[in-house]
Amino acid sequence: MLSERQLFILQVLIDDYIQHVEPVGSRTISKREDVHFSSATIRNELADLEDMGFLEKTHTSSGRVPSEKGYRFYVDHLLSPTILSTPDIFNIQALFNEKLAETERIFEQSAKILSELTNYTSIILGPEALETTLKHIQLIPLGGQQAVAIFVTSTGHVENRPVTLPSGIAPEEIETLVNILNEKLTGVPLAELHQKIREELHLVFRKHLNNHQQASLFIDDIFKWSNKDKIFFGGKTKMLYQPEFRDVEKVRILLDALEEKTVIEQLLSANNEGITVTIGQENQVEAVRNCSLIKASYSFHGKHIGTISLIGPTRMEYKRVIGLLDTISREFTNLFNTRY
Amino acid sequence: MLSERQLFILQVLIDDYIQHVEPVGSRTISKREDVHFSSATIRNELADLEDMGFLEKTHTSSGRVPSEKGYRFYVDHLLSPTILSTPDIFNIQALFNEKLAETERIFEQSAKILSELTNYTSIILGPEALETTLKHIQLIPLGGQQAVAIFVTSTGHVENRPVTLPSGIAPEEIETLVNILNEKLTGVPLAELHQKIREELHLVFRKHLNNHQQASLFIDDIFKWSNKDKIFFGGKTKMLYQPEFRDVEKVRILLDALEEKTVIEQLLSANNEGITVTIGQENQVEAVRNCSLIKASYSFHGKHIGTISLIGPTRMEYKRVIGLLDTISREFTNLFNTRY
DNA sequence: TGTTAGCACTCCAAAAGAGTGAGTGCTAAA
DNA sequence: TTTAGCACTCACTCTTTTGGAGTGCTAACA
């Protein structure tokens, strides 16, 4: 069990280290105004804290540096309920007051602002297909056999896909076909589209269309869209400003990893409610083991649909960052639920 | 005027430097099989080439390094007509055989492959509005006052924009309105849309619609889309593999610059036919003054509509890169002209 | 018993010094 | 005109030195 004083010293030390990125010595702590015991006393406490695994030394006679266990403790127990600073609040409000029309722009802007506010890289995962439903399908002929299929979802997202019209079907029939699609598929969650088509639509086609086999093939083609979840980055180069990434090699490994969609998915997938902090080695992905990742979930009709996150060095401004993410994710949830 | 031998030595030296990124000394050159004069002779020639400004020394007793003037000369006079290597050809063909449906995917893939083939960062500018014409407009209601306006262009690009329907216009009228839009605006180059609307449409509205003022306002809103040209990147982190960017500071400046749309536009704008090589200080943009930029233009109906480019250190594999860009840009031109 | 002053000790980091080798320019001979 | 030879330069690397920040331990003190 940690004594009051140990808690205090641990907190002060981590705060100091997060700010200055230099090992913190006993004297530095003792010189603070609110510290009323000598550096020798602090040295004793530091030694104890180190024995318990909360601190580390970079070499025998250096100051102390928080260990990952230390950060974990700090995040779990030492972080006072965070209140955003006025300029932060101001910035976020400005963002959501802009009433950006396109959903994509909102994500883009949020990612950008988030990274600019924090100087860390932000990653936002757009709405997942899970809860999103199809709202409308449209087929726009381009002349010849070419056309564009357009899908509008319940979250206001628009997806388009060029298709080749089947030669064996008359234009009127195609119209019928699209009407059927709209009738049958509106309101169906994107994830269930394929299933629905397979189970119900082929039968309906047989009833209403002459060339139902061609139609079925055509439909399969249309819906062969990659259900890619959109990833938005902000401040990919912010890493380069962090002293722990002064080594190009390290930056390279990290940035290369972030280019991989699979890595991003692995990092941000399956988020539970609220805010998750993953520190260093706790991370699944090798390349980000010297980083911390903070995720916040946003939801639509009570179900998680996407993730907002920040990635930075393990020495992160946890206090501020958590407050920021919390606020922004709430705003997102709010936005989706009121708008759609 | 340069002698045969000087030309030869200059070429050999630059080739060597591009490959090994180390100052090249007289002995290195003299040891080549096809060199039949001594290192002393070469030293004399090197001194002359340096006097002429084609070479530089990093310090008094170092080997020689090509100057920017040297590269310029190399690119302009020493580059044999480039023939692609078989694996390069193979890769490009594979890319264009894939018959990717979405135009966007083609750009994405090209950028990626280009950067992977060369280990430089590639930037592709999507088709500009200049030559592209509007092919179709569609308004998809989302329920309530919300709707999505969809624009399809002659190059197959689809743009969408959420809009709020004006309250004072009946649904049938909106249909009429869209019909008018399609009738009047199909085939109009994107760049001229605003002008066309201002000059012709408002009059037509007055004739056919009751609430023509509301309609006019609405139309202005719809077409208030940012005519953003799409920028596709490939291998943004490739810089980090180049020895000249071992310094994080340099990488940061460069990568930050590339995040700026204005910078990209400045770099890639107004490209003339064929291939342009811009070396170091020749660049307009401060941040890329230690890079070389190679641009190739692709066209539609004989007019330049976009740019494919690579950015890397001034020491670039010019020979190969130029060949690659040339081929790919031709393929692009080909693609657009046959497909649309 | 907890706290503190004092001191020897450790180890990093930056500076200073020494040796090495790749490369040059110049000169004189072929 | 070309080449061999030689003195010279300068970046690099490796070692040594020095300074300072920080520790752990001990003994004295409240």
Structure, explained:
Two copies of one chain form a homodimer. In chain A, 35% of the residues are buried. The first copy, chain A, has a five-stranded antiparallel β-sheet with strand order 7-3-10-9-8, with helices on both faces. Chain A has a three-stranded antiparallel β-sheet with strand order 4-5-6. In chain A, strands 1-2 form a two-stranded antiparallel sheet. The first copy, chain A, has helices at 4-20, 26-30, 39-51, 68-78, 86-97, 103-118, 171-185, 193-208, 212-222, 248-259, 261-268, 318-339, and strands spanning 55-57, 64-66, 121-125, 134-143, 146-153, 158-164, 231-234, 275-279, 291-300, 303-313. Helix content of chain A is 46%, strand content 19%. Chain A folds into three domains: 4-78, Arc Repressor Mutant, subunit A; 86-128 and 229-339, Beta-Lactamase (2-Layer Sandwich); 134-222, Enolase-like, domain 1, CATH 3.30.390. Chain A is built from twelve helices and ten strands. Chain A is α+β, with helices and mostly antiparallel strands and 340 residues long. Chain A binds chain B through residues 101-103, 135-136, 138, 140, 142-143, 146, 148, 150, 152, 156, 158, 160-163, 236-237, 240-241, 245-248, 251-252, 255-256, 259, and chain B through 101-103, 135-136, 138, 140, 142-143, 146, 148, 150, 152, 156, 158, 160-163, 236-237, 240-241, 245-248, 251-252, 255-256, 259. The first copy, chain A, binds a DNA duplex (30 and 30 nucleotides) through residues 23, 25-27, 37-41, 43-44, 46-47, 57-63.
